[in-house]
Amino acid sequence: MEVANSKPLTMKNLIIVMFFTTFGISAIYAQGTVHAACEASVVGYTETRNVSNFFTFADLKSKSVQASTTQLSNTLGSPYLVEAFQKGSLFYGEERIGTFYARYNGYNKELEIKKTNSSEEIAKALVNDKKLRFVFNNQDEMRFVAFIDKKGNRLEEYLLTKGNGNRYQLMERPLVSYKEAKKAANSLMLDVPSKFVKRTELYVLDIAVNIASLVPSKKSKLIDLFDESEKVQVATLIKKNSLNVKDEKDLFQIFDFANSINRDIAYKQ
């Protein structure tokens, strides 16, 4: 049957129609593939939950080996919190992905992870994702957290969880700096070897806003971290029990108490 006012397709027109039909199907398929790949790369694994893809985009930095092998062999200390890889569980949100081995490089600020504890397996850096957390078998937990440092900079790193709470959570930031070796100024002095120097900073994560703040060393500034509904009760607790805000044990008591406050009742008061 012929359509009114239609013209028969020439060979040239037929080729053009076939080209755009094929191109359109390919473009739709490619778009879907790219979209799926982008979604997979965001969380670090594919829709099939292939855990090996956690390591695809995370090669280790080389900062800690910027010195020569000879220099590092003479360097005191270590860039790692614990030199050996420790067994634990990797989680994405509340879902347990599997068992792995990990150690934290405080100098590179990377959580190095392997599927086995074999010395032949090359470690990779765990991708930076706030839903990822690694729980060591000793119950220590590392999470990728946003925080404000003492200079007011907003940073994101893996922090060590120091306590649980439904509102406030104490966290430790491990820091490792590298000090260059120094030659003796004269024959009466000794050379100073290069070394890794470790220190920590204590933060509190406000789960309501999902950002951590440096724990102040002054009582008045610590109290300012809390909501208006909590300040009076926290201040009373500190005074009544003569708590020292520079003492980690006392800080645990303060934040445990703050987590137990019924905010609805506190607001009415």
Count the beta strands. 10
The chain-level mean pLDDT equals 78
Number of helices: 6
Count of structural domains: 2
Evaluate the radius of gyration. Answer: 28 Å
One letter per element, helices H and strands E, the order comes to: HHEEEEEEEEEEHHHH
Q: What percent strand?
A: 25-35%
Biggest sheet overview: 5 strands, mixed, barrel
- Helical amount: 25-40%
Q: How would you write the strand order of the largest sheet?
A: 6-7-8-9-10
Q: Terminal Cα separation, in Å? A: 85 Å
What overall geometry do the principal axes of the alpha carbons give? globular
Task: Please explain how this structure is put together.
It is a single chain. The protein has 269 residues and is an alpha+beta fold. It folds into two domains: 61-215, no CATH class; 217-269, no CATH class. 28% of the residues lie in helices and 28% in strands. The protein has six helices and ten strands. The chain has helices spanning 11-43, 69-73, 219-223, 228-240, 248-260, 263-268, and strands at 86-92, 95-105, 110-114, 124-125, 132-136, 141-148, 154-161, 168-179, 195-206, 211-214. It has a five-stranded mixed beta barrel with strand order 6-7-8-9-10. The N and C termini lie far apart (85 Å). Mean pLDDT is 78; it is low at 1-6, 14-49, 64-71 and 264-269.
